[in-house]
Amino acid sequence: MVASGQDRIERRLAAILAADVAGYSRLTGADEEGTHVQLQAHLRALVDPKVAEHRGRVVKNTGDGMLAEFGSVVDAMRCALDIQRGMAERNAGRPDEKRIEFRMGINVGDIIIDRGDIFGDGVNVAARLEGLAKPGGICISDDAHRQVRGKFDVTFEDAGER
Hints:
By secondary structure, the chain is an alpha+beta fold.
C-alpha cells in the first residue's frame, strides 16, 4: 500500500528538552499569583533567551514548564546547563520554600511535527526523563549521553536502565 503525499506525516530527528518546576503545586498553594509572576519572569529573562541563543525553539509552555526542540543534543545540553546555572544564581538568597527550580530531561529521537507542536516517543521519553531528574538537575537518555560524552566539564551519574 502506498500513501499519497497528502497523508504523509512530517517527522524528523531532534533533541528534545522537557522542563518543569519541581514542587509547583506546593509553590502555588502557598502563593499562586506570586509564583506565576515569578515563573513568567524567569521564562522571559532567562529561559526563552537561552533557548534562542542555543538555536532551539520553545514548542510550548505547559503552565509549570516547557518543551523545546533543538537540532543538536550538544545545543540542548548547553542550553539546559546555562538555564540551571542561571536559575541557581536567580535563586541565591531566596528561602528554600520560595525557590523555583527546574527538573529537565533531554532525549534525542524521532518526532512528529503537527501544527507547530511535536509528538512521539522522542518527546515522551524526554518527559519521563524530566520526571526522574532532581530539582535543579538534568536527566538525559543513553542516546543523548553518547552524543555529549566528553564535550562538557560535568559529571554524569549512571542511574541505570529505566
